[in-house]
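Posting this for the archive.
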Amino acid sequence: MTQQKIQARAQILAKIFFLFFAMYLFVVLFVFVSFLFPTLQQNIQLSEPSTGYVFNLLTWSSTSGQTTESMRMTYLLITFVLNAAMVSSIFYRIAHLFQTIAEGKPIFDLSIIKQLKKISLWLYLYAIVPMFLFPLLSYFLTQSFHFELGISNSLLFALGTSLLIEIFKYGASLQHEVNETV
């Protein structure tokens, strides 16, 4: 595949991920507006996010007090905003990575590897934050506690990205050796 084809495909993928980023920002804005105007809330059904656990190690739930609907909605809003912020950041970083490739940077360049590391960090956060922060938020906002510890699909994806980064590091070192010998 020629460099021009790689750059053209990377440009298309960058635009797609920038579009995903913009769509997520629009959805977050829509949710905020729906919470500001209670009449719009009646037709919006928010549900608990599905984490897609491949292997669930531990699940524990407890209810210690009365949970009001407004407390539950506040919890759902906060978790939604945190999830949307993490996913938006992932989309933005992926779009930026493809934009860098479209500008002609070599695939095994150190700047590409640094961008992949940032994406991997956000993927790890997206996998781990719901596991540990959301139960605490739930306890403080709704007086109920639900804790799940397991291996989610997003954690497996983050591990795969980390493996890909190591392969790119090895490719970059090989490219460096070839450049020095020539």
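The longest strand covers residues 53-63. The first helix runs from residue 3 to 36.
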